[in-house]
Write a structure and sequence with these properties.
Blueprint: E1 11-17, E2 20-29, H1 38-42, E3 49-60, H2 62-78, E4 81-83, H3 89-101, H4 114-148, H5 155-165, H6 170-192, H7 201-239, H8 242-248, H9 253-292, H10 296-306, H11 309-335, H12 341-373
Parallel strand pairs: 2-3, 3-4
Antiparallel strand pairs: 1-2
Length: 375
């Protein structure tokens, strides 16, 4: 009867390659057995490149990961390049998770040069932009299907979302819009009263609210309120595998979950923007009455003389675009969320940041385009 082979203990060997060092691990790595440490193995060596290999490793547990992580940490601190391409994908994934949990405890990774960093960031940006455009394309196809087959659309869900992002948002939109109008009136009064143009405060507030601030402030408020709620809801559904269940039943998540929310925001945000315009003008009227002594009648007549239907249409067009941007951002981040509680929170934060960023970019584009066409 042959005896069972005795497992080899954990061991590390190194081979110099110019100014680099190829580190090979072998044997059985177990947390309960004695094993080498990175500091003890490296000694006084200071290589510029460390290449890690585990080709001869048998059984292993977290002790192997701790050794490799210590090597990565040393490379980060000293600025050496740590090459992990030869490691199995499973080990690289676990190392990435450990590094992510300790990313604030070590200095910035200086192992890769500037061109590599720019290239990786560019590839990551292209992948993210591709996912955004793919999602937008799916939403467009779903909208076309809605036009062709409106009876298959869940109008009850859409009306519920309209109530949540429309009527339930009236208090915060009212407060923000009124205070924006008050702030604009005080700011304009500081300049205009020096030249005897107190009445032109109405012109300033009317145009600013109708063309810019009404749609912009409503969009920002709903990005933080509704966009984050969409991302959290869909992210939680993904974590609970509800979206997977819908896909298994042949129900596209875009049709069932995304399109009702997009339609609700696309309809309600322009209405909220018009309401915001009225509250902002009312706030300016209150300040003009108390600070400048302008009667509400004179203020209103001056506002009507400067604000036209074209200005109102500009604000409505912007508000519609902002509503779709918020809906797309919230739903996309929710569907991309990781399947954990932390992933849901990150998705909500990312949805707000993405929505506000694209709202500002879209507003700048609208300003240029409307200036070119003479709006």
């Amino acid at each position: 009867m042959s005896a069972e082979p005795v497992p080899l203990h954990a061991r590390v060997s190194a081979k110099a390659e110019g100014d680099g060092l190829e580190v090979s691990l072998a044997g059985t790595w177990q947390i309960t057995e004695s094993r080498p440490s990175w500091a003890g193995f490296l000694g006084t060596q200071n290589p510029a490149l460390v290449r890690l290999r585990v080709d001869e490793v048998g059984k292993w547990d977290s002790s192997l990961l701790l050794f490799l992580f210590a090597a990565q940490q040393w490379c980060r601190v000293t600025g050496a390049h740590c090459d992990t391409d030869a490691l199995p994908e499973k080990i690289r994934t676990l190392l990435a998770q450990i590094s992510a949990s300790h990313e604030t405890s070590v200095p910035f990774d200086r192992s890769e040069n500037f061109l590599v960093t720019v290239g990786v960031a560019t590839q990551d940006l292209l992948v993210k932009m591709r996912s955004i455009f793919t999602f937008i394309g799916e939403c467009v196809i779903s909208a076309i299907r809605l036009v062709r087959h409106p009876r298959k659309f869940r109008w009850g869900d859409c009306l519920f979302e309209m109530q949540q992002c429309g009527a339930m948002a009236l208090p915060i939109v009212s407060l923000i819009s009124f205070l924006v109008g008050v702030t604009l009136a005080y700011t304009g009064a500081l300049v205009l009263r020096q030249y005897g143009g107190d009445i032109y405060v109405a012109d300033l507030i009317g145009l600013a609210m109708v063309r810019e601030m009404g749609a912009m402030m409503t969009g920002v408020v709903l990005a933080g309120r509704t966009g984050a709620a969409f991302a959290a809801t869909l992210g939680n559904m993904k974590a609970n595998e509800e979206i997977d269940a819908l896909e298994t039943l042949g129900i596209p998540a875009v049709n069932f979950l995304v399109l009702p929310r997009l339609l609700a925001l696309g309809v309600m945000l322009p209405l909220l923007a018009l309401y915001s315009n009225a509250l902002g003008i009312l706030g300016g009227m209150a300040v003009s009455r108390g600070l400048l002594g302008i009667s509400p009648t004179a203020y209103w007549v001056e506002t009507l003389s400067i604000v036209s239907l074209t200005d109102v249409a500009v604000g409505v067009i912007k508000a519609t675009a902002f509503g779709l941007i918020i809906g797309v951002s919230g739903c996309l981040r929710g569907l991309q969320a990781e399947r954990s509680a932390a992933g849901v929170g990150q998705a909500a934060t990312s949805a707000v940041v993405t929505a506000i960023l694209f709202i500002i970019v879209a507003d700048a584009i609208f300003a240029v385009v409307f200036n070119i066409i003479g709006f």
